[in-house]
Design brief:
4-stranded antiparallel β-sheet; 7-stranded mixed β-sheet; 13 strands
Amino acid sequence: MPPKPNPGILDIEPYKGGESVLPGIAKPIKLASNENALGASEAALKAYAGAAAKSHLYPEGRATVLRNAIAARYGLDPDRIVCGAGSDEIFHLLGQAYLAPGDEIVQSEHGFLVYRIVAQTAGAAIISAPDRDFTVDVDAMLAAVTSKTRIVFLANPNNPTGTYLPFSEVRRLHAGLPENVLLVIDAAYAEYVRRNDYEAGVALVSAFDNVVMTRTFSKIHGLAALRLGWAYGPAAVIDVLNRIRTPFNVSTAAQMAGVAAIEDTGFVERTIEHNARELDRVSAGLQSLGIAITPSVGNFVLAHFPKGKAADVDAFLRSRGLIVRRVAAYKLPDALRISIGTVAENDALLAAMKELPAL
């Protein structure tokens, strides 16, 4: 008899990233994965190339230089930072450390799919709280918490809806949680938010022992291929994660590129400015064509179509060399998530949408 995986593992639906290839089209326009339209910082690319000379050496296990650079950028204690192979790895570490069979996680209705995988891997149940107008409903989240809840996952801003909770609502969510429940604030798109009432999670982590904030280099820094993320949390939680992560989980190349990226504030500002301008333009362009959108604070927009028509729109865009993201797995079968691209890519998207057959 062949070896059997743990119960529930074969029930996990593997995560499927945005596609990047279209048959018969040499260079499709990929607007499916919320990648940085401007690429990556030249300084980060230079640092990445420079890491080749150290390929025969193990990485520095605690990513000390990178943690210090992150701490300096955000005014944090480097000892309360842990780095990972993307924030996805950190979610899995948190699940490994704090979830067991019979436990529960709470997430929003349209929460990031990886949270579900984390829970299923640990044998925990997934409780999804209904959203309100595609935005996390704090009261619904709190009502979903039971004595079995161990982690509450909050993506703020949320992917794929692009909506966010103001800090007052995040604080209210935390205040309603038992002390033994860990609030994980996934702030992957924090840098894009231009709202005075938004806070990424640093304030709560600094004040309480049951809050962790995760961040990524995949979005604003354009280093998705390097798989680099980090978390800021209570000393006790960070100690736990350091005990169970693999010894060399972040490559030397990722560490060196990460340091250069976080210090290149000019590139970050250019990315923010480009995204703000193009997000407004793409959103307005879609609305002018009668396409409903959910207002977004990220680097993508969620477009809604008549019932059963999202697949047809997706197929039409593909025929024009454009790849966007179907989000039926997020309980949004009639919507498409569209990343903000370069000016030329966004022009191509809007031009194609103008030629869209009547729905």
